[in-house]
Amino acid sequence: MKILKKPLMAAMLGVSALGLSVAAPSETQATSSVPIDVWALRDVVNAVQISPDGEHLLVHINPSREGDYLLQIYKTSDLSTPYRTLAADPMEIISARWVSDNVIVGNAWEIKRETVRRQEDDTRNYATYFYNLERNKFSQVSGNLAIINTLPDEPDSVLVAAADAVADLGVDPFAAFRPRSYYRLNLRTGSQSLVMRGTRKYGNIQFDNQGNPRFAIGQDSDFTVKTYYRKPGDGSWTQFGEVYDQDDHDNLWRFLTGFQGLAHIDQDNPNLGYMIEARNGADKASLWEFNFETGEFGAEVFAAEDADVMAVGTHSIPGNETLAFAQYPGAKWERHWFDEEEKALYEALEQQIPYAHQVSISSRSYDGRTMVVSNRGPRDPGSFWLVKDGQLAKLGSRNPLLNQDALADVEYIRYTARDGMTIPGYVTKPRGEGPFPLVVLPHGGPHVPEVIGYDEWGQLLASAGYMVLQPGYRMTVGWGKAHFDGGYGEHGGAMQDDKDDGALYLVEQGLVDPDRIAMFGWSYGGYAALVATSREDNIYQCAIAGAAVADPAKTYRLGAGRAGRIPRALNDWAERRGTIGINPIEEVEKVNIPLLMVHPEDDSRVLYYHFEDYKKAFEEAGKTGEFVTLEDADHFYRTLMYTHQQQFYTKMLDYLANDCGPGGL
C-alpha cells in the first residue's frame, strides 16, 4: 500500500480546534523550557477509531483544560465539523470503541464518595453504555463491564464480563484467579444472557470469536495452578501442561507476569493455538504452537534473545485473524514479524509519520482502504493519523501544545549492577552538554513492565535540564525469570542497588555530575525514594516520594489472616516487602537528605495513612521536609486532573531547583 502525505486537514483535532490558551510561566516554572500549564493538561485527544465500514470516525476528546471528556463522531466524507457530539452528564465518558458499523460501547465514571473506605476501593461509581449511531440512542447497562470479544459473526451482540475498575489499572497477582461471569450483551435491547459462570478453579477464561470457551487458568484448594483447554463444542475442560505450586516462591514469576498463557487462536484452524510459555526450564517466555486436538505443545515459533515474548498481534483488517507479530521489550516494544504484508505497511507508515517510534494501527475498515494510525515516542506524546484512499493526514495529539522538536531523545541502555546482573534502562537526555544533574525515576509495581515510549515525567524533567534514568531493576517483568527472582526479598536491598548503580554508571560515562543526583518515584517508586533518603554513603542530594508505600509492614498487618487465604509464596513475598525488607517509616532517624513527599488524598492503592503516619514520624524525629496533598486525587495517572498536575509539577520543579541539597540540583 502506498501512503502519501498531504497538508493537514482544516478539521485537525488540535490546539486550533480546541481553542486552548496557556498561561505565561511563573517564576517557579522558569526552570522548564515548556510552561507548566502545557504539561498539566489531561490528554486532549485520548482515542480515535474508525468504524469497521470506514464511514465514521470516533474521537474521545477533552475540549477544555478542566472539562470532561466527550465523544465526537465525524463522517469520514466530511471532517469539517462533528456529525454528533455526546456527553454522559453527570458522569464522564472514560472509554469508547466501535463494536460494529453503528454501535459504540464504553465506560463512564462519576465521583460519588468523599473518602476511600479500604484498599482497592474507589470514590467513583462506574457504568457501561452503548450508543447506536443509526438510532441516535444512548443506553446504560447496569454494572461496569469489559468487552471480552466483539463476536464478529453476531453484529447485535458482544461478550462481556464484570470489570475490576481499580485492579485493571495495574498488575494484579490475583486477577487470573478472580472468578468472573461472562455474558452476551444484546446491543439492541441491553439484555444480558449468561454464557459461563467463572469459578476459582476456572478463574480466567478465554473465548474464540464464536464465543466458545477455549482456555482457562485457575487454582485448586491446595493452591496449585492448573491450565485447561476445550475444543469447540466440548462441554467440559481438559487439563494440560505443568502444575505449579503457588506455595513455592520459585513459581512467583509465573503468577505475577500476567502474560503467560493462551495468546491467540487460529480462526481458520480452531485446533491450532499459540501459547506464551517458559517451557523446559527456560529463563524467558517464548511463543509456542499448541494443538487443541491432542492437548500438546508443538514447535517453538519465536524466542527473543534478551526478553520475554509478552504479546502477539494479528492482521490489522477486521476479520483477518492471521498472526502478524510477536512483541517483546527492548528499545521500544519490539516486533518480530510473521506477516510480510503487515510489516511492509508498518514500515511505510514509519517513513511518513514524523518522529515515528511506536506506530500502531488502532483500527481499520473491512476493505483496508481506511485506517487510524497512532504513534507514541520520545518526541511524540501520542498522535493520531487518518489514512484514507492512500493519503495520510494528522487528526490530533494527546498534547497539541507541545513542540515535538523541543522534546528529548531517549536511549535504551544495559548496565552491570554490582553483583554482575545486567540491568536494562532508559535515559532521557536534556539539551546541551553534560555532565548533567540526574533524576533517577524508578517505576511502580515493582514488577510492572516498563518500556519507555513517551514518558511525561521524564520529558518534563528533561525540559528543565535534568537527565533522567528509568531503570528496569530486578523484579521488573519482561526480562526473564532470573531477573525477576533476583528481587525476591530485596526491597531496599539489591533492588535499590540497581538504581544507584545505574546512576553511578552514568557518572562513569561522564554524563552526570556526581554531586547533583536526586530520586523521584511514584507508588513503589515512592517507596524507593524514601529508602534513598536513609542510604549510607548516599549518592543523592534529595528525594521526591509520590504516593509512596511508607509503611509496608502496616499494610501487611492490615491483611490479617491472609496466610490462610492466599498461597504461602505470595504471603511470604508480601511479608518480605513489609517486615523483612527495609521499612521506610522505621528508618526516619537515618534520613540524611532533603525530602519532598506528595500523596493523593483519595489514593485507593497506597492508602493515605502512609503519608500521614510517615509525616508524623518524620517530624517527631526532628527532620525537615515538605509534604503536599493532592486533594480529591487517586493513585492512577488518569485520575490526576489539570489542577493536580499543575500543583504537583510546579512544586516538583521548584523543589529540585531550590531545595534539593545544598543550593538546589
Record the SSE blueprint.
Blueprint (H helix, E strand, L loop, with lengths): L3 E2 L9 H4 L17 H4 L5 E6 L5 E6 L8 E6 L8 E3 L5 E2 L3 E2 L4 E9 L12 E9 L4 E5 L3 E5 L7 E6 L18 E6 L5 E6 L6 E4 L5 E7 L4 E6 L8 E8 L6 H6 L3 E5 L6 E6 L8 E6 L4 E7 L8 E4 L8 E7 L3 E5 L2 H13 L5 E7 L5 E8 L2 E9 L2 E7 L11 E8 L5 E8 L6 E5 L15 H8 L3 E5 L9 H5 L8 H15 L3 E11 L1 H9 L9 E5 L5 H6 L10 H13 L14 E6 L8 H12 L4 E6 L11 H17 L7
Protein architecture, described:
Mean pLDDT is 89; it is low at 1-30 and 165-171. The radius of gyration is 25 Å and the shape is globular. 17% of the residues lie in helices and 34% in strands. It has a domain at 413-658: 3-Layer(aba) Sandwich (Rossmann fold), CATH 3.40.50. The strands form eight sheets. Strands 30-31-33-32-34-35-36-37 form an eight-stranded mixed sheet, with helices on both faces. Strands 1-29-28-27-26 form a five-stranded mixed sheet, with helices on one face. Strands 6, 7, 8, 9 and 10 form a five-stranded antiparallel sheet that branches. With 665 residues, the chain is an alpha+beta fold.
Question: What would a concise description of this structure say?
Answer:
The protein is α+β, with helices and mostly antiparallel strands and 665 residues long.
